[in-house]
Amino acid sequence: MATTDTVYNTTTTTQEPKSRKWFNVPSENLEKVRFGIKVTEVLLSFVAFVMEEVVSNCSNCGPLYFFEFVSCTAFLFTLLLLILLATTLHQKVGINCWPTLDFVYTAAMTFLFLIASIVFVRDNGQTSLEQATAAFGFLATAAFLADFAFFVKIRGIPCRNGNNQPVDHTPRQETEKLNSNGTE
Description:
By secondary structure, this protein is mostly helical.
């Protein structure tokens, strides 16, 4: 009876559930350094957006509106991406290619913020507020570029290797022989 109890107790007794952490950094999708960079991206794009909103007069408003769109989009979507990657929520969304999504998003935001900042600097009223706003645009661009460069340095380009797993070209010997008729 004693041996039976020890065998069955280990398989049938309920164990206490592991405490789940909702905040998950570092994880397979986000390292601590990139987490810090993404927080910086969120803050800089938010400051650029708020400063752009404070600009009251514009001689040519097209570049200002484009900068507004890019800075607001960068703030909101980077914040969303940060929340998803830093928590366990990314497992509930149904996307299984987070590295590729993160890579493409970061590259696109780097390009868009750079273009928006250049256009805004080139065509604004040259007030100190507009120049400071453009400076925060370039700082946000630098943060996105740093995130992109760090991603490539650590993980490589995810589009090249499928799931970004190293390809193993080691020849392997077959362990089972295939039979033509299905019998041994």
